[in-house]
């Protein structure tokens, strides 16, 4: 959105005052076209954009501004030092508050305050720019309600639960399938990690680190922004642990068969198994173990040697293995159910290990 006056002829009420037009400093400022209220009682400046808003509205929502406006007036030289902003100037008869923020971030915050809350999108890169700006300033200026709403929205894409992660991945795969070549819907996890560190939002970190660990380092290092050195070290350690987890996952599949309920198997039509409907026991343990061994070999070749999709994504590998047999169509219902339960347990275990892999629990 353009914030310039766009050459529109303003009414007398909106014409620049003598102070605004005569001061060299003020002549370079641009009024925000939407957030300039003629009855506003305070003017906020961010970059070269100015916003005339109401001190009462800011005080109602923001603990920071509530405290600031309760301090002595602009004539007191100590007031600006106490709050970290400059309130010793006036513009159009209103106190001028100089904020060290991006103008588009401030605009997003003010729009959310004035226009019945934030209107978030679908967590794509463009939406992230708006949400991150609101979260950044809501945290800085103690607008708790907006901070909570922004965090809740971001957690749909960077969830703290496995169920949330699965919903996120389902949406991502659906989005990718409509594009050629595939293009991720979500912004870079690097930006999410940096934002989470900046605003103290640790709930976003496990999903963001895990998502980033699935990318090769060549792609990570080519991003326009970078992680801090400590987070880069955490990423490297976690990425290594995640890849080892795929190997351990396949190995555990090969060492956990039970005689009465053997581990998951893959059907190569090398034999036929008979079972009773609803049977809880494998009726052909030897045949299932043979198929199971073939499944381990297949997974080793696919994920570890060929390094196909999933070799750095143990949650995906466990999900894939768990879906190789359907209870409805499997020739051995007991083995199919065992496979599903094994995969579900492993995925829960992996999810709870993620904060440890990336050294996030310190």
Automatic annotation (TrEMBL):
Q: Where is the BTB domain?
A: 40-114
Region Disordered, as annotated, extends over 248-272
Gene3D superfamilies for this protein: Potassium Channel Kv1.1, Chain A
List the Pfam families.
BTB
Q: Which SUPFAM superfamilies match?
A: POZ domain
Q: Which domain of life is it from?
A: Eukaryota
Q: Tell me what this protein is called.
A: BTB domain-containing protein
